[in-house]
Amino acid sequence: MPKSQEEIVRLFFNYLSKSNYDEAKEFMERQRLVFLNNAWPKAMFDILCDFALAEKNYYDTNFEPSKNKMLERKEDENYLDFVYKTLYQDLEKLQTEVDDNYVIKLITTLLQFISVRLQFLELYDKLYEIGSLNSWINFSELSETVENIQNDLSNFSPIDQVLRIVRYELDCIQHLFKCHEHLGEWSYFDSLISLKESSDAFILWEKCYQNKEAWRFGSLFMSKSTLPPLLLWFKRFKHMTISKFMLYFYGILVRQSSLREVKNTSETKNLHFFTKMQQLKQK
Hints:
283 residues, mainly alpha, Hyaluronidase domain-like, 2 domains, 75% helix, elongated, UPF0536 protein, KICS_2
């Protein structure tokens, strides 16, 4: 029985919300051959297939500075920026050619979503440059940038399913930035709360990728990791933030727990914090 266009869109974005990007693309390719040929122009199917691939490549990009992969990373960044901007232009053009109200609504929401994605790419590019230069980081400014993205992110029905993952991403990075901001003020409780909220968001975000598609690049594929490079970067950033928190409030943590517990936590998270503190004390 032919599916309605609303049902097809719902199923497509349901695949994306579960991080099944290849399945989403294959599903839309099947629909292009069977359904909606009269209701939708061929370009709409092509755009949605390319959108699914762009979303997968977005999470597959490594935003961490590396001298050996500087050129590769820059090519990935330029590619993604080009793809999303091309999709945006194609959607704008298609918007003037269709008269179906539902398709027009879908195009409008996709344009808004892609605009948010482009802001994300700009943010990660800024973080990459900061990391490459090893310069001082203004976390207040970064937090403000994330807040601006959040303000542009609303319920884009009919694609609000996939926004769940985007919100996890925003919440995770926003609270990490806030934690560093509070650490700069030596605020123990505010830092702890931000760290907890970031960890909660990351746990929910990580669950979206459990037992999902294998990811493409080198060591990740060899290690059979189910997490894309972007989440692995977030995981390292979170652990680095925990390490900094433990450094700032080492005395409080030891008094509230024990030296052994602090050491075990450090070793469990592979932070090497305790060893570095011992080495510093010996010096």
